Each structure stands twice: as structure tokens, then as C-alpha cells.
Amino acid sequence: MNIELLNQASAFISQEADMLDHGEYPEWLALWEEKGLYIVPINPDETDFANTLNYACDDAKMRKLRVARLGSGESISTSPAPRTIRSVSRFRVLADDGKTVTVRCAQNLREFRKEIQKHYTANLTYTLVRDGDSFRIQQKVVRLLNSSDALQCIGYIP
């Protein structure tokens, strides 16, 4: 196990979670490869995202539109804006070919909005491309634990 790589990847993913919790969406968008995909599948076991229905399967254009919607205050799901705290843990490097690194981790997300607190748990899988001494996100898959149940409106990026 390459502890240095694991530490670098987990620090990058933790930074991304902090950016999202603090609404640093332009900085979050800058973490992505232009052709990167942000995916939230309905079926937690799905691997063929292009040929199945997903809660989200965002390319660069859709990520920018999602961020614009979150910041506009015009969507009922984002007004008032929810406050979130993400905890990421249990990092594991699944693959490393020298250029890309695949990392799986757990995320626990707490949301507080309209006097109600909600909790979402997910397995996250990142495909990261090396970029100098850091990374860029090529793909992020958010496998919500309860994705196959009816989900309430989520007014932020899980």
C-alpha cells in the first residue's frame, strides 16, 4: 500500500467536501477535468451509467448549470439554502496506473434546512487524474445508501 498516495488522495477528497459544505462552487468546478462526469445512480450497483437512469449524470455543462441553480435562490429546493456538513472516511486506493488513481471512500452528509435535519450516507468512487502534485476529478460516483428508495428533494451537491 502506498501511504503517501492514500494521504494525498484523501486530502484532496476532504478538501472537495469542505468546498461543497462552504458553497465554494466556482473552486469546486475548477477541480474537474473538462470531460469529467459527476454521477449519482439510482441503482447503487449500476456500472453502465450511460444506458441507465441516474439522479445525476453531469458533464461540465450540467455541473455549471447545477452550480448556477444552487446560487440563484430561484429554485424551491435551494431556498433557503441548506447547511451541510460532510464527513469522508474509509479511504481505499482501488487502482493506480501512474496517470489515474481510483479511490473509494464513505461519506456521511448532514443537511439542515427549514428546521429539519436529514442524513445521507454514500459510498463515493473517484477517478482522479494526476495534475502536478495534486489531482483533477475525471469521475465521481455517489452511491447513496438509500438511492433505490423515494428520495426527498436534495437542494445541494451530494
Query: Low-confidence segments, ≥5 residues, pLDDT <50?
Result: none
Structural class: alpha+beta
The protein's oligomeric status is single chain
The residue fraction in helices comes out at: 10-25%
CATH architecture classification name: Roll
**Gap between N and C termini, in Å?**
29 Å
Number of domains: 1
Number of strands: 6
**Sheet with the most strands?**
6 strands, mixed
Mean pLDDT: 88
Radius of gyration: 15 Å
Strand arrangement, major sheet:
2-1-6-5-4-3
Strand residues, percent: 35-45%
Shape: globular
Q: So how many helices?
A: 3
CATH topology description: Nuclear Transport Factor 2, Chain: A
Give the topology string: H per helix, E per strand. Answer: HHEEHEEEE
- Determine and state the CATH class: Alpha Beta
Describe this structure in words.
With 158 residues, this protein is α+β, with helices and mostly antiparallel strands. It has one domain (3-44, 51-144): Nuclear Transport Factor 2, Chain: A. Helices cover 23% and strands 44% of the residues. It is built from 3 helices and 6 strands; from the N terminus they run ααββαββββ. The chain has helices at 3-21, 25-29, 60-72, and strands at residues 32-41, 54-58, 83-96, 100-113, 116-131, 134-144. A 6-stranded mixed β-sheet has the order 2-1-6-5-4-3. A hairpin with a 3-residue loop joins β3 (83-96) and β4 (100-113). The longest helix has 19 residues, at 3-21. It starts with a helix and ends in a 14-residue tail after the last strand.
Key traits:
six-stranded mixed β-sheet; alpha+beta; Nuclear Transport Factor 2, Chain: A; 6 strands; 158 residues; 3 helices; single chain
